[in-house]
Amino acid sequence: MTTTYLFHPDISTEAQATIAALLATALQAAEAELLADLRYQQQRQPVQAWLAYAGDQLVGCKLGYERQPGHYYSWLGGVRPDFRGQGIAAELLHRQHAWCRVQGYRAVRTHTYNRWRAMLLLNLRHGFDIIGTVQGPRGLTIVLEKELKA
């Protein structure tokens, strides 16, 4: 089945629930908490989304927002477990970074945890550097950043 990728410059209220459900499955996290986080962040500033569909089914997403002028934060992302290993996460990352370059961002930052090793390895393979760690409420957070070349 062909995967279709769509960009949303601002996530609608209707799409938030669908995205939260996908992320709950992909990240094995509480859907209500993800939805609350998404709604909170969307109120603060627009969250952009790259969405991957297999037919009409949402199978992956990559969310982000401006952290500060010139710097973008790649916030949340995931692919349904039954669609992993097909390059969807890498394609979402590639599309997000290409969009960031066009928008004039110079760097992308992301955070992850050691338990999500596939995401950590994906980020490292695509040019991110580990720039630090932060002790957070869910454990040690790994901070990564990538300089975007023009």
Q: What structural keywords apply?
A:
4 helices, 150 residues, alpha+beta, 35% helix, 39% strand
Describe it.
The chain has helices at about 15-25, 30-45, 90-100, 115-125; strands spanning about 5-10, 50-55, 55-70, 70-80, 105-115, 130-135, 140-145. The protein is an alpha+beta fold and about 150 residues long. A hairpin with a 2-residue loop joins β3 and β4 (about 70-80). α1 (about 15-25) crosses α2. About 30% of the residues are buried. The mean pLDDT is about 95.
Short description:
The protein is α+β, with helices and mostly antiparallel strands and 150 residues long. Helix content is 35%, strand content 39%.
The amount of helix comes to 25-40%
> What string gives the helices and strands in order?
EHHEEEHEHEE
| Secondary structural class | alpha+beta
Uncertain segments: none
Backbone CA Rg: 14 Å
Overall mean pLDDT:
95
Profile the largest sheet: 7 strands, mixed
Number of strands: 7
The side-by-side strand order for the widest beta sheet comes to 1-2-3-4-5-7-6
Q: What would you call the shape?
A: globular
Beta percentage is 35-45%
Please count the helical segments.
4
What's the end-to-end separation, in Å? 33 Å
